[in-house]
């Protein structure tokens, strides 16, 4: 199983970025989520989406600015109105044969390598 993120980069505050994550394996059976880790801080949940793409959850800081979605083979995180607090490494995570994992780190077995997001 491999998860590969893309779409990170450096942007000015107020701008947008869209992260993507390709998930190998039986993606349709996996609940997936985005996490992030800022320098010196613990990894935290950003957004999660269930199998089927209907049920979603967001961290308070993400709600209203970020949108998680998925299609047949990828998951996405649209991030709007970015601010400097959004700087960090963003990771996608997946757990197969599980309909929902919410924003719990321990719910996910498979992780991507991370993509850097820098907001200035």
Element layout with pairings:
Layout (H helix, E strand, L loop, with lengths): L2 E4 L2 E3 L5 E7 L6 E8 L6 E6 L6 E3 L7 E5 L3 E6 L8 E9 L13 E2 L3 E5 L1
Parallel strand pairs: 2-11
Antiparallel strand pairs: 1-3, 3-8, 4-5, 4-9, 5-6, 7-8, 9-10, 9-11
Task: List key phrases describing it.
7-stranded mixed β-sheet; 120 residues; globular; 4-stranded antiparallel β-sheet
Rounded Rg: 13 Å
Total number of β-strand segments? 11
Secondary-structure content class:
mainly beta
Uncertain segments of ≥5 residues (pLDDT<50)? none
Beta content: over 45%
- Number of helical regions: 0
C-alpha termini separation: 34 Å
The helix content, as a percent range, equals under 10%
Largest sheet: 7 strands, mixed
The helix/strand order is EEEEEEEEEEE
Shape: globular
Residue-averaged pLDDT:
96
Quick gist of this model?
This protein has 120 residues and is an all-beta fold.
Structure, explained:
- There is one protein chain.
- The protein is mainly β.
- Helices cover 0% and strands 48% of the residues.
- The chain is built from no helices and eleven strands.
- The protein has strands spanning 3-6, 9-11, 17-23, 30-37, 44-49, 56-58, 66-70, 74-79, 88-96, 110-111, 115-119.
- The strands form two sheets. Strands 2, 4, 5, 6, 9, 10 and 11 form a seven-stranded mixed β-sheet that branches.
- Strand 4 and strand 5 form a beta hairpin.
- The protein is globular.
- The model has no long low-confidence stretch (mean pLDDT 96).
């Amino acid at each position: 199983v491999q998860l590969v993120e893309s779409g990170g980069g450096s942007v000015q505050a107020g701008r947008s970025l869209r992260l993507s994550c390709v998930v190998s394996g039986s993606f349709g059976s996996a609940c997936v989520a985005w996490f992030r880790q800022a320098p010196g801080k613990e990894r935290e949940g950003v957004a999660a989406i269930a199998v089927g793409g209907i049920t979603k959850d967001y961290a308070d800081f993400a709600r209203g600015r970020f949108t998680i979605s998925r299609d047949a083979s990828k998951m996405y995180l649209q991030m709007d109105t970015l601010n400097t607090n959004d700087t960090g490494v963003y990771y996608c995570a997946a757990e197969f044969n599980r309909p929902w994992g919410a924003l719990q780190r321990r719910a996910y077995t498979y992780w991507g390598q991370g993509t850097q997001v820098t907001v200035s």
